[in-house]
From TrEMBL:
<dbReference type="InterPro" id="IPR011706">
    <property type="entry name" value="Cu-oxidase_C"/>
</dbReference>
<dbReference type="InterPro" id="IPR008972">
    <property type="entry name" value="Cupredoxin"/>
</dbReference>
<comment type="similarity">
    <text>Belongs to the multicopper oxidase family.</text>
</comment>
<protein>
    <recommendedName>
        <fullName>Plastocyanin-like domain-containing protein</fullName>
    </recommendedName>
</protein>
<dbReference type="Pfam" id="PF07731">
    <property type="entry name" value="Cu-oxidase_2"/>
</dbReference>
<dbReference type="GO" id="GO:0005507">
    <property type="term" value="F:copper ion binding"/>
</dbReference>
<feature type="domain" description="Plastocyanin-like">
    <location>
        <begin position="3"/>
        <end position="70"/>
    </location>
</feature>
<dbReference type="GO" id="GO:0016491">
    <property type="term" value="F:oxidoreductase activity"/>
</dbReference>
Length: 106
Protein backbone atom coordinates (compact mmCIF):
# COMPACT_ATOMS: atom_id res chain seq x y z
CA UNK A 1 0.00 0.00 0.00
CA UNK A 2 1.28 3.45 -0.83
CA UNK A 3 0.21 6.48 1.16
CA UNK A 4 -0.73 9.17 -1.36
CA UNK A 5 -1.99 11.81 1.06
CA UNK A 6 -3.06 12.33 4.69
CA UNK A 7 -4.63 15.65 5.53
CA UNK A 8 -6.89 17.28 8.12
CA UNK A 9 -10.42 18.35 7.23
CA UNK A 10 -12.95 16.82 4.84
CA UNK A 11 -12.07 15.10 1.60
CA UNK A 12 -13.40 16.58 -1.63
CA UNK A 13 -12.83 15.53 -5.24
CA UNK A 14 -10.65 18.61 -5.72
CA UNK A 15 -8.13 17.12 -3.25
CA UNK A 16 -7.15 14.46 -5.82
CA UNK A 17 -4.85 16.94 -7.56
CA UNK A 18 -2.65 16.96 -4.41
CA UNK A 19 -2.09 13.18 -4.31
CA UNK A 20 1.54 12.08 -4.38
CA UNK A 21 1.51 9.50 -7.17
CA UNK A 22 5.19 9.78 -8.17
CA UNK A 23 7.10 8.79 -5.03
CA UNK A 24 4.48 7.77 -2.49
CA UNK A 25 5.68 6.07 0.69
CA UNK A 26 5.14 2.30 0.85
CA UNK A 27 3.61 1.23 4.19
CA UNK A 28 1.77 -1.73 5.71
CA UNK A 29 -0.31 0.54 7.94
CA UNK A 30 -1.48 4.12 7.91
CA UNK A 31 -2.62 6.19 10.86
CA UNK A 32 -5.46 8.59 10.21
CA UNK A 33 -6.14 10.98 13.06
CA UNK A 34 -9.62 12.17 14.12
CA UNK A 35 -11.17 14.68 11.71
CA UNK A 36 -8.61 13.77 9.04
CA UNK A 37 -8.64 11.67 5.89
CA UNK A 38 -6.13 9.50 4.09
CA UNK A 39 -5.75 8.35 0.48
CA UNK A 40 -3.98 5.09 -0.29
CA UNK A 41 -3.01 3.35 -3.50
CA UNK A 42 -3.40 -0.44 -3.45
CA UNK A 43 -2.00 -3.00 -5.86
CA UNK A 44 -3.75 -6.36 -5.84
CA UNK A 45 -1.13 -8.70 -7.28
CA UNK A 46 -3.11 -11.93 -7.25
CA UNK A 47 -6.68 -13.18 -7.37
CA UNK A 48 -8.65 -13.69 -4.19
CA UNK A 49 -10.58 -11.93 -1.46
CA UNK A 50 -8.64 -9.02 0.06
CA UNK A 51 -9.56 -7.48 3.40
CA UNK A 52 -8.70 -3.86 4.16
CA UNK A 53 -9.59 -3.01 7.74
CA UNK A 54 -9.03 -1.04 10.86
CA UNK A 55 -6.74 -2.76 13.34
CA UNK A 56 -8.98 -1.55 16.18
CA UNK A 57 -11.41 -4.44 16.55
CA UNK A 58 -14.01 -2.35 18.40
CA UNK A 59 -14.29 0.04 15.41
CA UNK A 60 -14.88 -2.54 12.69
CA UNK A 61 -18.61 -2.54 13.37
CA UNK A 62 -18.60 1.13 12.30
CA UNK A 63 -17.77 0.06 8.78
CA UNK A 64 -14.01 0.50 8.96
CA UNK A 65 -13.53 -2.68 6.95
CA UNK A 66 -13.71 -3.41 3.25
CA UNK A 67 -13.57 -6.62 1.23
CA UNK A 68 -12.32 -6.52 -2.36
CA UNK A 69 -12.74 -9.56 -4.58
CA UNK A 70 -10.13 -9.70 -7.33
CA UNK A 71 -11.36 -12.33 -9.74
CA UNK A 72 -9.44 -14.44 -12.22
CA UNK A 73 -9.43 -13.40 -15.89
CA UNK A 74 -12.15 -15.95 -16.72
CA UNK A 75 -14.51 -14.28 -14.19
CA UNK A 76 -15.23 -17.46 -12.25
CA UNK A 77 -15.81 -17.64 -8.50
CA UNK A 78 -15.53 -21.43 -8.23
CA UNK A 79 -12.40 -21.19 -6.05
CA UNK A 80 -13.74 -18.49 -3.73
CA UNK A 81 -15.67 -18.85 -0.52
CA UNK A 82 -18.95 -16.98 -0.19
CA UNK A 83 -19.24 -13.96 2.08
CA UNK A 84 -19.62 -15.27 5.65
CA UNK A 85 -23.20 -15.57 6.91
CA UNK A 86 -22.33 -13.64 10.08
CA UNK A 87 -20.52 -10.86 8.17
CA UNK A 88 -21.86 -7.37 8.85
CA UNK A 89 -23.33 -5.51 5.90
CA UNK A 90 -24.12 -1.85 5.64
CA UNK A 91 -25.18 0.75 3.12
CA UNK A 92 -27.04 -0.19 -0.03
CA UNK A 93 -26.22 -3.92 0.24
CA UNK A 94 -27.80 -4.30 3.67
CA UNK A 95 -30.78 -6.63 3.38
CA UNK A 96 -29.96 -7.85 -0.13
CA UNK A 97 -29.77 -11.62 -0.74
CA UNK A 98 -26.43 -13.33 -1.29
CA UNK A 99 -25.36 -13.55 -4.94
CA UNK A 100 -25.78 -16.97 -6.51
CA UNK A 101 -22.59 -18.81 -7.53
CA UNK A 102 -21.81 -18.87 -11.26
CA UNK A 103 -23.12 -21.86 -13.18
CA UNK A 104 -19.61 -23.21 -13.89
CA UNK A 105 -18.94 -23.61 -10.16
CA UNK A 106 -21.84 -25.98 -9.48
Amino acid sequence: MCVCRVEPGKWTPAKRKNYNLLDAVYRHTIQVYPKCWGAILLTFDNCGMWNIRSEILEKRYLGQQLYVNVGPPELSQRDEYSFPANGLRCGIIQGLPDPQPPRDSL
